[in-house]
Amino acid sequence: MARIVTYEKPADFIRANREYIFGDYYAHYHLIHTIEELKAQKIELCECYNIVDDDGSYKT
Predict the structure, then answer these.
(1) Closest by CA position to 17, among listed 46, 43, 56, 55
(2) For labelling alongside 26, which of 17, 20, 35, 52 has CA 20 to 30 A away?
(3) Which residues contact 51 (CB under 8 A, 6 or more apart)?
(4) DSSP three-state, residue 5
(5) For residues 15 and 31, what is the distance between their CA atoms, to the nearest angstrom?
C-alpha cells in the first residue's frame, strides 16, 4: 500500500530528492524550474511530499 511522506519545508524535500530530481533533468524540467523560482522567492510552496510504496521507494 502506498503512503505519503510529507516535508515541513521545501528545502527538506529538495534535499531528500536532489539526486533523483537532478539525475534526470528532462523528466523533471518543470519541477527544477519550480525549485529555481522558489529559490528566487518568486513563488511559495504550500505542501511538499513523496508518495512511496511499502519498501519506501518512490522511483518507477
Answers:
(1) 56
(2) 52
(3) 2, 3, 4, 5, 58
(4) strand
(5) 14
What is the spatial distance between Cα 42 and Cα 56, in angstroms, rounded to a whole number?
A: 32
pTM: 0.81
Beta bridge partners of 3: 52
pLDDT single digits (tens) 1-56: 889 999 999 999 999 999 999 999 999 999 999 999 999 999 998 999 999 988 87
Do the Cβ atoms of 21 and 48 come closer than 8 Å?
A: no
Cβ count near 7 (within 10 Å): 17
Give exposure, 14-34, as e/b (b: 16+ Cβ within 10 Å): beebeeebeeeeeebeeeeee
